[in-house]
Amino acid sequence: MRIVITGGFGFLGRQVAGALLEARTFAGVPVDRLVLADRFVPSGAPEAADPLVDVVQGDLTDRLGELFAEPVDVVIHLASAVSAECEADFDLGMSANVDTTRALLEAARAQSAGGGPTPRIVFSSSVAIYGSDPALPLPPVVSEATLPTPRSSYGVQKFVCEQLVGEYTRRGYLDGRVARLMTVSVRPGKPNAAASGFLSGIVREPLAGLPATCPVDPGLRVALASPRRTVEGILRVAEAERGTGPGQLDGRLPVNLPALTVTVAEMLDTLRKVAGDAVADLVTVAPDPAVEAIVGSWPARFDNARATALGLAPDPDFETVVRDYLRDHADAVVAVDAAQVAAGPRP
User: What is the 3-state secondary structure (H, E, C) of the chain?
Assistant: First the structure.
C-alpha cells in the first residue's frame, strides 16, 4: 500500500505520519511506501530517514505528476493555508485551498480512469465551515446535518472542497472522506497564522515562560480537540470500511470529529490549577475584533453521534489535554516542573 500525506511535514502531517510509521499498517494492510509531500522539509526530520518514507518537496500542484507516477492507494490531504492568512489574502486562500485540492482530485481521477486503483482521498476540513447567518442562526447543538454558512474565506474554501470531494466520490472517480477538525489545542511549536492559534498560545507560551495574549472575551465558548484525539480521528475516518454496520462509514456526509466544549476562561483556570499563578498571570486579555469575528462565528457544541459510531470520543476535560501536553513536550516547558505537574494535581 502506498500512502501520500500532503502537508506531511506540518504539525498534523508529522503526527499522522508518526502514527502510521509506528503501526506500519493501514486498515490491517502493510504500508509499503509513505510519501510525505510538503513545500518545506525541516532539516534532520526523523521521518525522512525512515526506510518506508519518500519525500517530495515543492508546491503540491507542481509535484502531482511525481506523486502519482506510481499508484496511490490513499491520500491524506492536510496541506492548507490557514484561517487568518486566507482572510488577509483572498487569492492565496483560493489558490492554496481550492485550486490545489481540485488539482489533487483530478490527479486521483486520472489514475482511476487510467486503470489504476481508485484512490481513497481523506480531506481535512474544519469547524470553520459553520457560521451563524442572520437569516438562519446556528442551532444550540450542531451536527453534520446543520447547513454550513461560513463567515470566513477559509470556511468557505473548506466547504467548497468538501463539496468537490463529495461530487468526485458520487461520480465514482475516487473514495472521498471528509473529517471536520475541531480547533486543535494544545499545539506545540511556534505560533501559526490561524485565527484560532491563541487557543494553543495561551497555554503553550506561559508554560515556556513567555507572555501570551488572549484576543477574545474569556467567556467565549469554543470546541477543541487535543492533537492525540485529532490524529486518532483522521486515521479512523481514513481507515473505516464503507457500509452501514457498526464502525463503518456510510454515505458521503463528513464526520465532525469529537469536540470538547469549554470556555476560554475555563482554559485559563485550568492552566492556573495545573501550573500555578505565576504561569497563568503571563496571559493578558486584549480583545481583537478581527479574531473575535472569526472564532466567535464557529459553533461550540456538537452532536458527536456520527463520530461515536466510528468509536471516537472527545477529550474528557481540558486538564487532561494540558497534562498530555506536559508529558509529550516537557522539553518546551520551562516555567514549571513538567514531569511533576503532568503526573497529577499540583501540591
Answer: CEEEEECCCCHHHHHHHHHHHHHCEECCEECCEEEEEECCCCCCCHHHHCCCEEEEECCHHHHHHHHCCCCCCEEEECCCCCHHHHHHCHHHHHHHHHHHHHHHHHHHHHHHHCCCCCCEEEEEEEHHHCCCECCECCCCCECCCCCCCCCCHHHHHHHHHHHHHHHHHHCCCCEEEEEEECEECCCCCCCCCCHHHHHHHHHHHHHCCCCEEECCCCCCEEEEECHHHHHHHHHHHHHCCECCCCCCECCCCCEECCCEEEEHHHHHHHHHHHHCHHHHCCEEECCCHHHHHHHCCCCCCECCHHHHHCCCCCCCCHHHHHHHHHHHCHHHCCCCCHHHHHHCCCC
In this structure, how many other beta carbons lie within 10 angstroms of the beta carbon of residue 339?
11
Tens-place pLDDT, residues 121-133:
999 999 999 998 8
**Closest listed residue to residue 212, CA positions, set 224, 220, 222, 204:** 204
Residue 231 C-alpha cell reads as 490524529
User: Does the active-site annotation cover 154?
Assistant: yes
Cell of 190: 511556534
- What are the distances in angstroms from CA 325 to CA 21, 204, 215, 275, 321? 21, 9, 22, 12, 6
> Catalytic one among 130, 154, 173, 325?
154
Tracing cell 483572498 back to the chain, one arrives at 90
In this structure, are residues 50 and 17 in contact, taking their beta carbons and an 8 Å threshold? no
Show the low-confidence residues of the chain (pLDDT under 70): 338-340, 342-347
Single-letter amino acid code for the residue at 46? P
Interacting residues of 322 by C-beta distance below 8 A, sequence separation 6+: 186, 203, 270, 271, 274, 275
Chain segment 298-321, per-residue pLDDT in tens: 999 999 999 999 999 999 999 999
